[in-house]
Amino acid sequence: MKKNIGFIGCGKMASAIISGVKNSSIGSDFYITGSEITEDVASAASERLGINVLSANKELVRGKDIVFIATKPNSVVEVLEDIKNELPPETLVVSIAAGVSTEKISKVIPNNRIIRIMPNTPALVKLGMFGVCKGPNATDDDLNLIEGILSSIGKCITVEESQIDIVTAISGSGPAFFYQVIEDMARAGEKLGLDYEKSLTLAAQTALGSAQMVFHRGETPVQTLIDNVATKGGCTFVGICEMKDGHSDELFYNVIEKTTQKAHALGKG
Q1: Sheet containing 66-69: order of strands
Q2: Are 79 and 141 found together in one domain?
Q3: Is 269 a residue whose pLDDT tops 70?
Q4: What SS3 state is found at 5?
Q5: Cα–Cα nearest to 91, from 118, 129, 61, 120
Q6: What CATH number corresponds to the domain at position 244?
Q7: Which residue in 3, 189, 192, 226 has the fewest CB atoms around it within 10 Å?
Q8: With 90 as the cut, is the pLDDT of residue 91 above it?
Q9: 109 and 178, same structural domain?
């Protein structure tokens, strides 16, 4: 029997999950409905995603097995207050709102089981990365159900909720950081005389292949992968030395730290 899933909010992150699941091997196992705040936005989302999108959150949650809360973090409590009297107590609630703790959610809907996830947009191409943690009342079966759904469109790890803001910084925001690195490498190639699109293809495909090598390394440390390419005295070694002289490790630490702090602050509003 198909499970009924509702998404309150059909923005970029929710759309990536919806489209990814719909086009995955388990897409036929679910009936997905969404909601948006106005009829115009709902209509546009429905056409874009190919699902029924309502303009009433209260109507959306009725009879749902799973409800994803995919609104802006500062709107979560307001949305929950609006739907709490219509939300069945047996419905599993899954929040993708950055920075909003399950404790905060549970104060509004104390009778529901709650899971918190941090997704990312590559779910759209079935290469998503998800951090998942259990909240109040949630069971191992709930966790396994959500992990099963998410694993159909990427990789999934379970973390403690105290670590979820770090997940937000590394994988939730991470695609933008990698896009920036790819763009910077491509533009460098362009400045040196290579056509931009060719340079971009070189950078993007190299990033993709390098990531796959990390996953296929077995017990080999990542540093060994670096050393295998950066032979001492060679051209790659010169580039690695330039990165070290520029303190790339400090740069990326600061990027992840600042993003983590921002994710934590989002839920305080």
Answers
A1: 52-54, 30-35, 3-8, 66-69, 92-95, 113-118, 128-134, 154-158
A2: yes
A3: no
A4: strand
A5: 61
A6: 1.10.3730.10
A7: 192
A8: yes
A9: no
